[in-house]
Amino acid sequence: MFRLIRLLNTSIGKKLLMAVTGTLLLLFVIGHLIGNLTIFMSQNALNSYAHWLQVNPMLWPVRLGLIFILLLHIYTAVKLTRSNQHARRTRYQKSGFHHSLFFSKHIVFSGLGVLLFIIFHINHLTLGNGISELLPYLDPKGNPDIYGRVIHTFSTPLYPLLYLLGLIVLGFHLNHILRGVFQSLGFYHDNYAPFLDFLAPALTAIMVIGFALIPLAALSGLLTPTIVLPPYGP
Amino acid sequence: MNFTFRIWRQRTAADKGQLVAYPVSDISSDLSFLEVIDTINETLSSRGEETIAFDMDCREGICGACSLVINGQPHGPEKETTTCQLYMRHFSDGETITVEPYRADSFPVIRDLVVDRSPLERIIQAGGYISVHTGEAGDANATLIPKHQAELAFEAASCIGCGACVAACPNASAMLFVAAKVTQLALLPQGQPERLHRVIRMAETMDHEGFGNCSNHYLCAEACPKEIPISLIARLNREFLAAALVGQEFLEPPHHSVHHE
User: Fold this and answer.
1) Domains present along chain B, CATH in parentheses
2) Within a domain: residue A92?
3) Which end of chain B has fewer CB atoms at under 10 Å, N or C?
4) Model ipTM value
């Protein structure tokens, strides 16, 4: 316990905490993507997967765990950012590395953007605010028709646009930080540099494109709607 | 060649300070950057004005004494070059050149372009050393070191401790400096007895001195006049995490060297 407290009081320890919590959150996002992609198998595949999640006794422990990890990630980020601002309070009158300002703000802003996106997404598709008229629909097997909800929601450009925007922000966040994760964990080594430098953009691309396929497929009519209601918005 | 130098003037640590313009004309392109400041100082001195204070020593690019942030870049625009090895031919005629001191809360300005870099000394004092037996010199090559290992250690050892990494980092982080100093000794047999103590003490002293945290901008490596590779930061993390997880040394009370004001 002493080791852990002392470790987390150092800058290297805090960076480790950022990397570990970030990696756990990323693993969740990967799992979330795999689960969501069942939408391309069939209506039944997605709906029974969603039903399995809903009745799973581990649902709330995992949810609470994820919220705790997310809060820890945010708390540590705030602490690190504040100590960084404290370490350099006088700016240079002339900035030579013109990209530095963009990047230094970038990770905090993209993190903030991802947080807003998460809140919006949970409120929208998980809690069902704004799509209440879709909630009563069941599929032929008697499970709530998540498939129908998703396709109907994404049938007009407004929501696909908002989700794509959120995904781009998530992409920026992942791409900038993945290499840093390996550094913080101490894995980064010249021998593996080409692989790790490839992994960051590759994993980011898989995440962003994977998730983007769903609203794009729904918008383009590739997926057949199962709930027929007047479409949303413009 | 003609230039306008905008140089940071600050009488004391408490003063606010400001950039002052000094036009220089008919300068040889083979003059070094510091020689131009010498020239300006001679003019100031002849007029009975205060000369510009700046750090320098060897003027051969090997001691780490010179500093300066030139046009926003520590040691100026040339890669792998210290300020003293920068020549006016690297600039274009008529250019306005802005010269500022290193900026970091850990490096307070003492006067003009001189900053207090003693936090780096205190990090070294905390663990950047090895214990040796005194007495007669040992046989050469008595300790065998694989060539590859020796080269890596030497690459890290080329750090001259100038602090450009801190000056370049938006967070004023000293990670690259500490990484170089830890790596250099961790890779060699002579560094093994104090290996865990060293990384714990140096990393904790770095935090204690108020340097920021690495947030992966890698401007440190871009600014480094000795091209210390960025991968050494991962090695520092690896060394420190291993020491924190299993080192008996991590259970001992933290070492923070005493501040000498």
Assistant:
1) 3-111 (3.10.20.30), 117-251 (1.10.1060.10)
2) no
3) C
4) 0.89
